[in-house]
Amino acid sequence: MRRGLLVGAVIGLAAILSGAYALRPAEVSPAAIRASVDQSPELLNRARSLPVALSYERSLTWQANGSFCGPASVANLFRSIGEGETSEAEVLAGTGWCRLGFCWMGLTLDELAEVARAHTDRRVTVLRDLTPDEFRRHLRASNDPRKRYIVNFSREAIFGAGVGHHSPLGGYLEAEDLVFVLDVNERFRPWLVPREKLYSAVDTLDGEHKRGLLLIE
Length: 217
Hints:
Number of strands: 8
Helix content: 40-55%
Structural class: alpha+beta
Radius of gyration: 18 Å
Number of helices: 10
């Protein structure tokens, strides 16, 4: 009995610690957000008129906690293409990931691909180790209504602080060379960033592998 209580206590402590990680606020100040990306109304309105951005209907469902950026990104993407699972709980159902209401240390790009594949018959492709030219080609393709992308990047490389993050791409303003990121974190909200700056944030390691893009088509 004592052993069972001890095991239960250890599991409970792990859940509390994991929950604290998942729910902790982002370590990026509002001033750093404003200085790092473009959220000017004029450019945002132009970006929201892009073909793929329009499918998100100017409304995102924000991630429930700090570890749920991946599931929230898939849920928003699914809604934009008419798939049935449009909540974090629905896209996670039956996958075995993110039990107890949090994703321990978040999801990698490959893990997020598994989550997406569990609830769609569409082709799901992990794209990593992209060259700058390949990255630009996919950004151009992100304006194609038949395709949807989720970008996995390091917040630190853009904002000077923070950890890895997932968010859908709303498209690419090619003339300005700006990428429209539909950030699922309510503190950040959608923003535009120069292509080279986003590429630098994607061309980083998450464990043993590079970050990258998730393509669903």
